[in-house]
């Protein structure tokens, strides 16, 4: 990640009163010059928030291949952080266990309006990113509630390598999110990529990552994902070498001008070059005290709780040992795989507000060369941030930022991203930020905290508190703290 010394810059190119649903699209237009219409007068009224695309693609009607059972038992015997479950004798079983480890259902919280919980977060628990597998003739989608891989798309395809693909469906998120669905799906793809890499790592499966190029839409056709204008270009991880290239797909336009703008961003990706080997997703230098298993860490992952069906999260302020901070910083030291995402990772700037962390003054901190550096002692900075959080505390919901131990912000200069990586650099930064946010989530789970990735802070005022540049965009944030509420947990693991 970039050095965080103070730098000058131009005035903000985005109007201060730009609404949150169009702000990121305005940043993209500023960075690339590719105009995207964001005026409300040109788009239809959003559908009710209950009218979203189904949890699985409509093409998921084929035969089912059961996933192996016993993944949790294998993970219980793998100590966190350096233990591994090992590679089962059958490659198909190894991949099945890896997918369950990375994405499997964990628990149900009866009082929580957003169920069921997985080892990674998602906007409104909609989980718009789907996991696909193809191996020669067969194309399948991960079907967690049936504990199976369900046939989807073509079942008579050309022979090819065993691959896992991640693709997000924008219409799985409500229409009211408008253009913002572009960034949210991009961030969730980064979160899912880290979970895929973690699952493969735990079960000893190497792979190679390919980011989208101009032909990547052909994979949407191959999986029968229609209408293709609702889907992001896929990230693919090949577990075997070889295979024919994808056929080029025609350029798309969406009838909905909002989706058409989202496609402009997503289809600007054209990352060429060979696929890149997956590196580690887990930091190598974490202390190993044997107190936790991987099954326990994945089970603990939480974005915060509220009682009695209320929304949001609530925490309690308490002193936090320095080890908790070191664990998070270690997870934030592991870049995503491949040169393109590594370059986007280097362009991300990490700023945090600490409160009550042993040996660290309350205030604004920067991460420089893997070490926190005090930018400004500012007691009460967390409470200031709460004033600019989009979900205020009410009798019906919690937006408790003032008690957080740390609030982490990932930001970037959009024009620098585009200068370095082309128009696709804008989306690559979201992948990299999602990867980092999931690292924060796993570190929090291992140290008894919740971690809530968010994009709900008002950008202008937050930027001023953090001391960011006027031409710097907040890509993602994560609130971490000690949970206030506990409750019944129903185990859903297999």
Question: What are the key terms here?
Answer:
13 helices; alpha+beta; 7-stranded antiparallel sheet; 8-stranded antiparallel sheet; 494 residues
Q: What structural category arises from helix and sheet content?
A: alpha+beta
Helix content: 25-40%
What's the story with the biggest beta sheet?
A: 8 strands, antiparallel
Number of strand segments: 19
Name the strands of the widest sheet in spatial order: 1-5-4-3-6-8-7-9
Distance between the termini: 37 Å
C-alpha-based Rg, rounded: 21 Å
The 3D shape can be described as globular
Provide the low-confidence segments as ranges.
4-9
User: What is the mean pLDDT?
Assistant: 93
Percentage beta strand:
15-25%
Total helices: the number is 13
């Amino acid at each position: 990640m970039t050095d965080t010394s103070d730098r000058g810059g131009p005035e903000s190119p985005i109007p201060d009163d730009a609404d949150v649903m169009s702000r990121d699209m305005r940043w993209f237009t500023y960075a690339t010059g590719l105009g995207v219409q964001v005026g409300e007068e040109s788009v239809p009224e959003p559908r009710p928030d209950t009218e979203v695309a189904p949890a699985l693609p409509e093409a998921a009607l084929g035969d089912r291949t059961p996933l192996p059972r016993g993944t949790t038992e294998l993970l219980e015997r793998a100590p966190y952080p350096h233990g591994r479950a090992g590679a089962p004798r059958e490659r198909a079983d190894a991949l099945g266990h890896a997918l369950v480890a990375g994405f499997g259902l964990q628990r149900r919280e009866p009082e929580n309006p957003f169920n069921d919980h997985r080892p990674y977060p998602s906007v409104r628990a909609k989980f718009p990113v789907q996991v696909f597998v193809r191996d020669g003739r067969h194309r399948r989608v991960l079907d967690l509630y049936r504990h199976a891989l369900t046939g989807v798309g073509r079942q008579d395809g050309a022979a090819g390598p065993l691959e896992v693909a991640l693709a997000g469906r924008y219409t799985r998120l409500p229409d009211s999110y408008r253009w913002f669905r572009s960034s949210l799906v991009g961030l969730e793809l980064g979160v899912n990529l880290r979970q895929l890499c973690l699952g493969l790592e735990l079960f000893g499966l190497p792979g190679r990552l390919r980011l989208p190029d101009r032909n990547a839409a052909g994979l949407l056709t191959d999986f029968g994902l229609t209408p293709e204008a609702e889907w992001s270009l896929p990230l693919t991880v090949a577990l075997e070498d070889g295979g024919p290239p994808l056929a080029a797909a025609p350029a798309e336009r969406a009838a909905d001008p909002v989706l058409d703008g989202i496609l402009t961003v997503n289809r600007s990706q054209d990352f060429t070059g060979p696929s890149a080997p997956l590196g580690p997703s887990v930091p190598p230098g974490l202390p190993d005290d044997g107190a936790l298993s991987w099954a326990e860490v994945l089970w603990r992952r939480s974005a915060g709780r509220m009682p009695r069906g209320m929304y949001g999260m609530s925490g309690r302020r308490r002193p936090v040992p320095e080890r908790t901070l070191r664990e998070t910083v270690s997870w934030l030291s592991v870049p995503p795989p491949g040169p393109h995402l590594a370059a986007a990772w280097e362009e991300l700037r990490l700023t945090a507000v600490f409160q009550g962390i042993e040996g660290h003054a309350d205030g604004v901190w920067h991460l420089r060369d893997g070490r926190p550096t005090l930018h400004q002692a500012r007691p009460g900075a967390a409470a200031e941030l709460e004033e600019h959080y989009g979900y205020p505390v009410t009798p019906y919901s919690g937006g408790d930022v003032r008690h957080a131990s740390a609030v982490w912000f990932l930001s970037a200069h959009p024009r620098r991203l585009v200068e370095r990586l082309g128009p696709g650099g804008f989306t690559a930064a979201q992948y990299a930020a999602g990867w980092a946010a999931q690292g924060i989530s796993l570190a929090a789970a291992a140290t008894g905290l919740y971690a809530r990735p968010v994009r709900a802070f008002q950008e202008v005022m937050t930027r001023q508190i953090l001391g960011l540049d006027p031409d710097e965009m907040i890509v993602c944030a994560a609130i971490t703290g000690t949970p206030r509420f506990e409750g019944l947990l129903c185990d859903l693991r297999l």
